[in-house]
Design goal:
The structure holds two protein chains of two kinds.
Chain A: H1 16-37, H2 45-75, H3 79-94, H4 102-124, H5 136-154, H6 160-169, H7 174-183, H8 189-200
Chain B: E1 4-14, H1 17-27, E2 37-44, H2 49-59, E3 62-68, E4 72-74, H3 79-89, E5 93-97, E6 100-101, E7 115-116, E8 136-138, E9 141-142, E10 146-149, H4 166-176, E11 180-184, E12 191-193, H5 204-219
Parallel strand pairs in B: 1-2, 1-3, 5-11
Antiparallel strand pairs in B: 3-10, 4-12, 5-10, 6-7, 6-9, 8-11
The chains are: A mainly alpha, B alpha/beta.
Chain lengths: 202, 220
């Protein structure tokens, strides 16, 4: 990526938060170019660990500025905003700049849910549940709470009311539940989905 | 402090209430042998895993201590029965883990070597009960996801002031004292580790070098 030397020329096109992301990406790519020149492209565990060590500061910087921008977009509760998040995710993921943070793996699951719910929305006007989430922190809380509640079904420690209430509170769709079950560490996926269907979506 | 032979203490370094509460929920489901007492200690704001575990170790009089991650959920409801029984039958067992390495790989990276845990059967969790005939893996190190002990041996917070290599170091410390480190052969996993799909390896290489300098070079 070319560096935005003359920022004034770009400030009408990008917000401060977006510029911060672009700056971080540029720095990240500069570092990778330097490491490539130094021959750190070598494979193997030790070489990988050395690369991770050197990329730590810029990785966290990028994560921070990207979180800021995603939080701004989530606040908008709109389909267009989610498309923007999808665009950022796809662009940065293609550059392999996100794969070391679990939050972006989780975000990918929500983006998949968004796409699936959007199709349903156009087919049958069913609501898009992910539009109700307002921040990355909220996405994490909802994600893990859902996983925990669903897993309790598998191991027989599930108070039914708690799960039904939670799904109702956030108006979580069956599409969302199916995605979460399929992507998380739940062994008996069929049992869990069937149980939730009978409790909440019958 | 007088050691309470009939007490087991679960010690966790906690930085996420949601995970901690879920972890405790599974601990509370465990069957408890008669006369046995359970204690759960959450160490908040630990400066490192080793420092947090030392703090927990010093604050409990329990003979048996289970140091575990907040994202580990114990599924084997007979866990306490099984752990205590193994310790009581063999005083030479210093530490029990859930996953381990028969030999520590030369590069110090635990997950680059062959790891042991499972037996030859695959029994559904509802029907599973560990039998001592299932056996034990004799290992050089265990993964820090869960480490149960019957003797208090200090964690090397002087060397490992972060979140990596405290586990492999403690395995070496236990063996240096002449105790065995083992992993029960599991025909159904005793736990579920809800770890993230990525490894947080930011400082791993730094602590790997510390580990190699302090343990591997001494052994050769």
């Amino acid at each position: 990526m070319e560096h935005l030397e003359n920022k004034d020329a770009w400030k009408d096109m990008f917000s401060i938060e977006e510029m911060n992301i672009l700056d971080a990406v540029w720095e990240f790519e500069q570092l990778r170019a330097v490491m490539l020149q130094e021959g750190e492209e070598a494979a193997g565990i030790e070489a990988t660990l050395q690369r991770v060590e050197r990329e730590k500061a810029i990785s966290f910087q990028l994560k921070g500025v990207l979180f800021e921008q995603i939080n701004i977009l989530l606040e908008k509760e709109s389909i267009v905003a989610w498309y923007e998040i999808l665009t950022w995710y796809q662009w940065l993921n293609a550059k392999q700049l996100l794969h070391r943070f679990w939050e972006f793996h989780m975000l990918k699951i929500f983006l998949d849910v968004f796409i699936a719910e959007l199709k349903e929305f156009y087919n049958s006007q069913t609501p898009i549940s992910v539009l109700l989430f307002h921040s990355m922190t909220e996405l994490s809380e909802v994600y893990f709470t859902t996983v925990f509640l669903l897993r309790r079904i598998e191991y027989g420690i599930a108070p039914v009311d708690e799960i039904v209430d939670y799904i109702g509170k956030y108006r979580l769709s069956l599409i969302y539940i199916q995605h979460i079950v399929n992507e998380s560490k739940i062994n008996d996926k069929e049992k869990v989905i069937k149980t939730v269907e009978s409790w909440c979506f019958a | 402090m007088i050691v309470d032979e009939n007490k087991i203490c679960f010690i966790l370094c906690v930085n996420n209430a949601l995970f901690y509460e879920e972890c405790v929920r599974y601990i509370q489901q465990l069957l408890v042998p008669e006369g046995m007492q359970i204690e759960i200690l959450a160490v908040q704001e630990a400066t490192s895993m080793a420092a947090g575990y030392n703090e927990g170790m010093q604050s409990s009089d329990a003979k048996y201590k289970v140091y575990m991650h907040q994202d580990v959920f114990i599924i084997n409801r007979y866990f306490i029965y099984d752990i205590v029984s193994l310790f009581r039958k063999d005083a030479q067992i210093g530490m029990i883990g859930m996953v381990g390495n028969i030999a520590i790989p030369e590069n110090g990276v635990m997950w680059s070597g062959e790891r042991v845990k499972y037996g030859s059967k695959d029994i559904p969790w509802e029907e599973y009960r560990y039998d001592e005939k299932d056996g034990l893996w004799e290992v050089e190190c265990i993964d820090g996801l869960l480490m149960a002990t019957q003797y208090d041996i200090p964690w090397r917070e002087d060397l490992f002031d972060g979140w990596d290599f405290y586990d492999i170091s403690q395995s070496c410390e236990i063996r240096k004292k002449g105790y065995r480190v083992v992993v029960p052969v599991q025909n159904c996993s005793w736990y579920l580790h809800d770890d993230k799909p990525v490894l947080q390896l930011w400082d791993y290489n730094r602590y790997r070098r510390v580990f190699i300098d302090n343990y591997m070079r001494n052994e050769t």
